[in-house]
Design goal:
By secondary structure, the protein is α+β, with helices and mostly antiparallel strands. It is built from six helices and ten strands, in the order H-E-H-E-H-E-E-E-E-E-E-E-E-H-H-H.
Length: 205
């Protein structure tokens, strides 16, 4: 009888200790609402727990600044009673409705899941232009769009390419990998495959 009573006491103490411990924060992809503010780290984004709030706004830069100064397309500004201050050293931002990742400026996350998807505009050389006025040849750049994905469990960011799907993402889902390898049109279906992967797989941390 004493042994049984002792066992029940141990069980009760363990339950009380567990009840006092904070429950792990849910992944942001499973929350019903986003907390607005600044993500200093990926972990803050992952757990929907921005560490800084305030009057934060995104300010776009001109196309000229992006093209000729190679500047980021936008920047995050903190406004207070002393004026405007450029925010530095952060991972991302949330305005309460949209999520943004910092990667050559702030890019809105289009879809969340095991791999969160965002699009990025990048300037790349597209040839040369001859100027008859001074008989010079200057390089020409054009804006191209590419997609990137964020692994919600690790924070790793990958460009969405056929190689990265085959090498790093789809091996976690052998059945989908086999389908991908056999698909002759896979290079035109990269978004379809990452969305399919997100539907079939649930991240756990």
């Amino acid at each position: 009888m004493k042994h049984l009573l002792f066992t029940w006491c141990i069980v009760w103490i363990n339950c009380a200790v567990l009840a006092q411990q904070p429950s792990p924060s849910p992944l942001i992809i499973f929350t019903s609402s986003y907390q607005p503010g600044l993500y200093r780290t990926f972990r803050e984004f992952q757990t929907n727990a921005p560490s800084q709030t305030g009057n934060l706004v995104i300010k776009d830069r001109s196309n000229a600044a992006q093209m000729y100064l190679l500047a980021d397309k936008n920047q995050l500004i903190l406004r207070d009673e002393t004026g405007e201050h450029k925010v530095k050293d952060y991972w991302g931002y949330c305005d309460g409705r949209n999520l943004y990742v910092r990667d050559n400026g702030l890019n809105r996350i289009l879809e969340t899941g095991y791999y969160c998807i965002y699009a990025q505009q990048r300037m790349q050389p597209s040839g040369r232009m001859y100027n008859p006025a001074d008989m010079t040849v200057a390089p020409m750049n054009q804006s191209v769009q590419l997609y990137k994905v964020i692994n919600i469990t690790t924070g790793e960011i990958l460009e969405l390419t056929a190689y990265n799907l085959k090498k790093y993402i789809l091996p976690q889902d052998p059945g989908l990998l086999d389908e991908f390898r056999a698909d002759r049109e896979k290079k035109d279906k990269l978004l379809w495959y990452i969305r399919r992967f997100n539907q079939r797989n649930r991240p756990v941390i």
